[in-house]
Records
---
Amino acid sequence: MPKARQFSVRVANKPGELARLATALGQAGVNIRAYLACETKEASLIHFVVDSPAKAKRVFDRLATEYAEKDVLLLELPDRPGALGEAAERLARAGINIDYAYGSFAPGARRVSDVLVVADVAAATKALRGLKT
């Protein structure tokens, strides 16, 4: 299971913030692999998984945007009923909590891409070894 770096960025909850960040990342040649945008009472929180963490850091620093970094687990599952349940069950048996997760698939695709945020990426990777993906 590959790991990736996730950036969590807090921005004002107003129109254009996702556009501003996504455009700046794109102009710097950073490809967004996954994202999740959530609102909170005070602001919006956007999680980005990108192909070039070093470039993304430079973009966020240049924009004077506060961010936090975290290793996350990237999981590719077959697009079939029960696939996510099998993965989650393995983690549960290993005592690994999924703090939060997000995923997506393209219509007609045979695979589902998931980002799992767990406290111990190495232990989660070990628990998922041999999973049919």
---
Amino acid sequence: MNIVLMEPEIPQNTGNIARTCAATGSSLHLIRPLGFSTDDKYLKRAGLDYWHLLDIYYYNSIQELLDKFSQNNIFFASTKATNIYSDINYKKDDFIIFGKETAGIPVKILKNHLDKTIRIPMINDARSLNLANSVAIILYETLRQNNFCDLIMKGKLKKIGV
């Protein structure tokens, strides 16, 4: 799977998302401008020691990404969308784009891709969920639909001494 963050602003969110992508074998795509330096200590701390497991790519615009992956399914996560994220059939090479924390994905972009917009249901008075949580919710649904893409499914219980 491919997770795209469009102009992310909060380094801790991006770090947490990077860790989730690394743990699931998903690629992370970042669209500039970023609201932080990639050397930011909060970004590095949130991603822990998973950075070497991560495939990360950078783009100067959303159009650059859309042009490069025009043959892939690309979905746009937004509180303004009408499609529920779990009603979509995802493929292993799909892209899910998330907007920046303070503004989301611009309406102009959403209008151009209405049939590819997805949302997480929530109560009317809630403005949005945390970006890192939203990514995890949707990403794990895409992975579930694809039999978890070779992720380890069984843990080993270790005997705990008393």
